[in-house]
Amino acid sequence: METVILAVVIAVVVLGVLGGLVVGSRRKKSLPPPPPAAPDITVPPAEPHVGDEAETPRDEPRRTIEEVDLPDGSAPPATVELPPTEIEVPEPTAGRLVRLRTRLSRSQNALGKGLLTLLSREHLDDDTWEEIEDILLTADVGVAPTQEVVDGLRARVKVLGTRTPDELRALLREELLKLVGTEVDRTVRTEPDERKPGIVMVVGVNGTGKTTTTGKLARVLVADGRSVVLGAADTFRAAAADQLQTWGERVGAHTVRGPEGGDPASVAFDAVKEGKEMGVDVVLIDTAGRLHTKAGLMDELGKVKRVVEKHAPLDEVLLVLDATTGQNGLVQARVFAEVVDITGIVLTKLDGTAKGGIVVAVQRELGVPVKLIGLGEGADDLAPFEPEAFVDALIGD
């Protein structure tokens, strides 16, 4: 019994010693280092607000508003020197169509070549003459003019008998010149007697190149030594006035314009007025392109004409037609002729796929001559119409 009690006591003593060792070892472990002291942070200076100085003010003398020398308005304001617009020198108009003959003949001489090929056949029967008629009709010559040419050719070929290529070409040339007309006055009337300026109004539907034609016509006149004022009376089409003014600036012509959507008759009136005051030779008025089927728009065109004639009679009313539109162009021509007295035709786009016979058809339709033709996109590709050069281009060399 005593032995058991002694063992228990020893066990209790051992456990007590072991517990003390464990606690002591925990106390001896290093504690985590204390957190470092907060660093000193320098606050950046506040950014200046509107009206504040961007830096610390310095002590320096300052002037009051009464001590500052202000301009008294006597000195002229400073002006910015802009580079002058370079004035172009247009190509002379004399013989311009002849110089452009190569381009015209490339696109048009299918008519002449086709006719010469058929006329060169040893035997010209009815079928051949029908083919000749088809070629002329396809070229937009028109039914009545085509019949005239065929009848004339048949009679002369029958008399001629044997036909050499040169004889056929001369024969065809004479017949085509009859159709086109060589005795008609094709001068663009810009020099009225005893007064200045000559007044020219340009009309036509949208898309025919009307504004471009007006600008090119200004170049033609300047090239012939005339002074020009342009009237931008096309106030309905966006940027039309800008386009016309650019054309004018190239050759030194003044442009009169009004607000977009403004009264075109007022612009036309002012253009003629300024042209008279400036003493220029010619005033060109570009009118708004309009659908020939819209009565209201056509009435507006008549109003422009009446307002302009309060200054002086119009010397020319040029109708611009797209040569590629064929019979539709003739419909347009009829309607415009009813509203304003057309005095001349300008055929544009007479290159490419255009058909040269439209020259004959439109002259027969209106009873007025083709005076100008447009042969391309170049600035100097508007040329006075010359029947001989035109026919020579049609039949080729």
UniProtKB/TrEMBL annotation:
HAMAP family, A to Z: FtsY
Membrane spanning residue stretches: none
Ranges of biased composition (kind: Basic and acidic residues): 49-66
Family label: Belongs to the GTP-binding SRP family. FtsY subfamily.
Entry keyword annotation includes GTP-binding: yes
Subcellular localization: Cell membrane; Cytoplasm
Species of provenance: Streptomyces pseudovenezuelae
Subunit structure: Part of the signal recognition particle protein translocation system, which is composed of SRP and FtsY.
Keywords associated with the record: Cell membrane, Cytoplasm, GTP-binding, Hydrolase, Membrane, Nucleotide-binding, Receptor
Function, as annotated: Involved in targeting and insertion of nascent membrane proteins into the cytoplasmic membrane. Acts as a receptor for the complex formed by the signal recognition particle (SRP) and the ribosome-nascent chain (RNC).
Membrane topology annotation: Peripheral membrane protein
SUPFAM superfamilies for this protein: Domain of the SRP/SRP receptor G-proteins, P-loop containing nucleoside triphosphate hydrolases
UniProt KW Nucleotide-binding keyword: yes
EC category name: hydrolase
EC nos: 3.6.5.4
Region ranges (Disordered): 25-83
Binding site residues for GTP: 204-211, 286-290, 348-351
Known catalytic reactions: GTP + H2O = GDP + phosphate + H(+)
Positions of the SRP54-type proteins GTP-binding domain: 369-382
Record's protein name: Signal recognition particle receptor FtsY
